[in-house]
Amino acid sequence: MILAPTIDTTAVRVTGGRPLTGHVRVQGSKNVALHLYAATLLADEPVTLHGVPDILDTGVCAEITIRGYTASGAATADCSPVRPRWGRDHHRPGGSLMPTPLTTDDTARLAEALDAVVADGATPGGVIITGTAGGDRHVHTAGTVAPELGDHPPTDRTVYDIASLTKVVATWLLVGSALDQGLMDLDAPIRDFLPPISGEAPSGEVTVRQLLTHTAGLRASTRLDHYRGTSTPLHELLCREPLEDTPGTHRYINRGYILLGLALAHVTGRPLDLAASDAWQRYGMTDTVYGPLARSEQVAPTEQRIPGTPRIWGSAHDDNAALLGGVAGHAGVFSTTADLATYAEHLLTAAANDDPTGEWLRASLVPHAPIEPGLDRGLSWILAAGGRAAYHHGFTGTSLYLAPDTGRYLVICTNAVYHGTARTRIAPLRALALKTISTT
After folding, report:
1. pLDDT (mean) for 177-200
2. Is domain 104-168+283-437 classified as CATH 3.40.710.10?
3. Fewer CB within a 10 Å sphere, N or C end of the chain?
């Protein structure tokens, strides 16, 4: 039996019979959430809080939530900055982290693997960047942007439809910012962050955390075309749907991120694409945008859906994102390997320092649900190699891998979906990328 947690007057302390997964939220006097901490909280051990602002040194309001149980209390004893506990034996890199570049042999094997999938006809071409938080980059390109463009080769500035990488490049990033600003709560129902809905809304009762971790139990099949012609807002249609599974089991579902995208637009008061653009501009990701884009040799086309018709080129390949005008929480973003490398460098640097984005990344790398043996789902990210690697894929043939402990990253951009089902033949490249990035 899991007991409800309690908080004593000097520290956040969990009572219960075994380690429990939960989170700690610290709030200021104006009841605005300042930080969220995800961790495995050990029974009868204090949970130390990191990064508490100096202005709160006379009192902190702490709340702890564990599997639906919530308790709160005041902690007034010691509010000085200390290092947090991060659940699993997770190394928290310090500011003096020395990134470890991949070896020459590693980069050569990855280059050969990309060359091989291009030669096999899995993709017209592609780009790989391996690098570190310190700014080291190694770029390898292969093939062409598309047969329509002749021998024009891709570069690290070729723009690709990154498909579901949108989840970690846009939605996850903006959710972290919203949490830091007190605009969202990981364990509150998603309907709390959407325009008002009257009456029953089963899918609106699932939490932000459950949506991020694909454990909400929502309908798996996402067909927004079924809603065409209705006068009811999309957020209400989605929230009124019945659950398909009991929340808690991992099942990859796009509609949860569609809801998150709608919620982010509501709580920020800005369209999702503009909110995301502001974040990307701060990181120097000048080529990362939501589509549509004009057709050009700088933009890689994707699939031809019907023979004898124009190929998708500069518009979202994902049908549901296309129905939403190309702007959605689950897909729709276009980017370059250079911009994704910049993004990875920012995340890894933030993770090694006292930065809100770094706190959010470390909290997101705590396992929440098993996917299969050796793989777990964190908050958005897939976790592998005992948590040493975090990654995500895009259906079109894109991938982003992070290794915070070594300060390494790896970016793959291809338009493998150009050849339809042939995209599955990039699997060996992705497998090698994961093995390589996981090396200590």
Report:
1. 96
2. yes
3. N
